[in-house]
Amino acid sequence: MLHEEASMAVYKRSYKDEQLIVAINNTTKSRTVIIDNKDLPLNKELTGLLDGIVVRESDGIYVIEVNSETSEVFIISDKSSLSISYLLAMSVVLLSCIVIIFFRLKRFLNGKRLTHV
Known about the structure:
Blueprint: E1 3-5, E2 8-15, E3 18-25, E4 31-36, E5 44-48, E6 54-56, E7 61-66, E8 70-78, H1 84-116
Antiparallel strand pairs: 1-2, 2-3, 3-8, 4-7, 5-6, 5-8
């Protein structure tokens, strides 16, 4: 048990090499729990499997917030970052769209000028 108070519980479960954190809030208000690094490994993140929440370790602590009368299951994983190739691909797509719109607009405006003369 990592944390327990007033109808709020956070506990850790392990199976083989996988570790899960389960947070249950059975109160009528949102609750925030601070878990320090003595209970969880450093330089990891908690990824929520139900709501997709991501909790990152900061200064040796994890701050978990659970809404009222809900629960969340987190998997402990390595910190993720945005992929450079993903950002590059998205930039190319955006730039291509802008260039296509520019040339279409330019051709449209040139066609309007020729028809009114």
